[in-house]
Design brief:
Blueprint (H helix, E strand, L loop, with lengths): L4 H8 L14 H4 L5 H9 L6 E7 L9 H7 L4 E6 L8 H13 L5 E3 L11 H10 L12 E6 L6 H13 L19 E6 L4 E5 L11 H9 L5 H4 L1 H14 L4 H6 L8 H12 L2 E8 L2 E8 L1 H13 L10 H5 L7
Parallel strand pairs: 1-2, 1-4, 2-3, 4-6
Antiparallel strand pairs: 5-6, 7-8
Helix pairs in contact: 10-13, 12-13
Length: 334
């Protein structure tokens, strides 16, 4: 259904929520534990690797990275791959701010990639090779093969990156399982060849979250990117935060995608219309004075799940969830 242009123009001038109610939400319950066993295993395997490749989501380039990675694995050369750039609304000035901020933290090797479109993947292997050959390899100096450990929080595309590198350098298919939810990779230290010359292996690892999430809003950003299972936060809560974000950024692709009459800031109203549009309804018995009556009601959780799935697949357009963080950063003179 085509949405009238005046409806979107009106939406662009509407007053949207300036803040999202965060009180009373238990972030610790959303992110149970910090997966210490996996991190300890990674640290004990450092002697087997020449380089660390950290993968993170480009939609949250400055939020949610595990600080323990740098603390416990910082002895090795480090490459940060900001993946899923096809889903991120990356403007030139934002990219400059991201790179400047990360360089200030000591990360000078940053690559933006999309495993769906392998073009930028070509930058990864030459960068890793250069870092390995330019660093002191200690007891690995006599090893002809190179080995890098791929780390990151859950569901940022570590396995997809490995598979993309295999396709590019070996012409081979998937070596690791991939999926749209956290927890697909459970084995620690799966050793996978990705290149013949130089002979290069990658160690795939499970996602490891930070032991402490800085704020509820950061937790919501991480959850929107699929780093935890949706039911731990609540599908409708996540859908509401997504709606709040899209409207504040004036991204009204959801209106056109679902054929709605116009943009709206009330999540219950939006999910009701989405449920009706998709036929996601359910019969509910209601007790009245004359007995039980079957009433057709919208299935709000099902509508919320579809809303989240549509966003994560990129059908609502690219989004920068760290926009407010980036706006607060100064842009240094070149």
């Amino acid at each position: 259904m085509r949405v009238a242009l005046h409806a979107l123009c009106g939406a662009a001038g509407a007053a949207w929520r300036e803040s999202f109610p965060l009180g009373g939400r238990d972030v610790a319950r959303w992110f149970p534990g910090h997966m210490a066993k996996g991190l300890k295993k990674m640290q004990s395997s450092l002697k087997l690797v020449d380089c660390i490749i950290e993968v993170h989501d480009a939609r949250i380039p400055l939020s949610g990275r595990n600080p323990l990675f740098q603390e416990t694995l910082g002895l090795k050369p480090h490459v940060l791959v900001l993946n899923k750039m096809d889903l991120a609304d990356l403007k030139e000035q934002q990219v400059k701010k991201i790179i400047q901020h990360l360089e200030g933290e000591g990360l000078k090797n940053v690559v933006f990639t999309s495993c769906v479109k392998d073009e930028n993947i070509k930058q990864v292997m030459p960068l890793v090779r250069g870092l390995v050959e330019g660093s002191y390899r200690y007891h690995r100096g006599e090893n002809l093969e190179y080995c890098a450990m791929v780390i990151g929080i859950p569901n940022v595309g570590k396995s997809s990156l490995i598979n993309a590198l295999r396709r590019q350098h070996l012409g081979k298919g998937k070596a690791t399982r991939v999926g749209g939810e956290p927890g697909i990779t459970r084995a620690v230290m799966s050793r996978i060849q990705v290149c013949d010359w130089p002979l290069m292996f990658l160690l795939d690892t499970p996602g490891v979250l930070s032991p402490r999430i800085e704020s509820v809003e950061m937790g919501l950003k991480l959850a929107l990117c699929g780093t935890v299972l949706d039911h731990l936060v609540g599908e409708e809560t996540l859908a509401d935060y997504l709606l709040y974000t899209l409207n504040r950024h004036q991204l009204f692709g959801y209106v056109q995608h679902y054929g709605l009459d116009g943009a709206c800031d009330d999540v219950a109203s939006v999910l009701k219309r989405v449920a009706v549009r998709l036929g996601k309804t359910q019969k509910v018995k209601v007790l009245t004075g004359t007995g039980d009556v079957n009433v057709i009601q919208p299935n709000y959780p099902a509508a919320a799940r579809d809303f989240l799935r549509t966003f994560r697949s990129g059908l609502l357009g690219p989004v920068m969830l760290d926009r407010d963080v980036l706006q607060s950063l100064p842009l240094a003179d070149p």
